[in-house]
Amino acid sequence: MESTAPSASTASSASTAPTAPGEPVSLDRALASFGDLWSPRVVTAVNDYDVRIVKVEGEHVWHVHDHTDEFFLVLDGELHIGLREPAGERTVVLPRGSAFTVPRGTEHRPYAPVPTALLLFEPTGTLTVGDRHEKVPAHVDVTTGRALS
Questions:
Q1: Strands 41-46 and 146-147
Q2: Tens of pLDDT along 55-94?
Q3: Cα–Cα distance between 13 and 72 in angstroms, integer?
Q4: Which residues contact 132 (CB under 8 A, 6 or more apart)?
Q5: How distant, in Å, are the alpha carbons of 18, 38, 51, 77 from that of 138?
Q6: What is the SS3 assignment for the chain?
Q7: Distance between CA atoms of 11 and 8, rounded to whole angstroms?
Q8: Residue 110 Cα distances to 23, 25, 45, 59, 140, angstroms
Q9: Are strands 99-102 and 70-76 parallel, antiparallel or unpaired?
Q10: What is the pLDDT of residues 85-128, one digit of tens each?
């Protein structure tokens, strides 16, 4: 890992309550409202957690969340997650409808071989590139989540 994440103040951020409490959210409509890849949108909040949706394709970056697990649910497409664990490297493959949690402190890199839509559940303010990461390419949005428009 060659760098640390920007502070939350330098990353793009969303409001903490993007939808009115008690109002339903159509994930299909929400996903259709944006086209950016690797740029999550916050659809709602649950206590101190954001529920985010994101469209992905290609590679993200190797990164680590030191203080929180990261939950992935594949809504459409297929996600591969490379993991660097004490026992060595492995890749988990998540087809549509699959969920997986990356434990805190585990270096990982998501990769989508086809256009993929995900739902993420993580503490409000969590950066998309974790606390430590490799150099961030231009196609990856360093953010704590953008407001759903």
A1: parallel
A2: 999 999 999 999 999 999 999 999 999 999 999 999 999 9
A3: 20
A4: 1, 3, 4, 5, 63, 64, 66
A5: 26, 10, 24, 23
A6: CCEECCCCCCCECCCCCCCCCCCCCCHHHHHHCCCCECCCEEEEEECCEEEEEEEEEEECCCEECCCCCEEEEEEECEEEEEEEECCEEEEEEEECCCEEEECCCCEEEEEEEEEEEEEEEEECCCCCCCCEECCCCCCCCCECCEECC
A7: 5
A8: 31, 26, 23, 6, 12
A9: antiparallel
A10: 999 999 999 999 999 999 999 999 999 999 999 999 999 999 89
C-alpha 33: how far from its chain's center?
17
Instruction: Kindly state the tokens that stand for 133.
Output: 């990461």
Q: Phi and psi of 60, rounded to 5°?
A: -95, -145
Amino acid at the residue 118: L
Model pTM above 0.90: no
- Residue environment code for 11-32, b if the CB has 16+ CB neighbours within 10 A, otherwise e: bebbeeebbeeeeeeeeeebbe
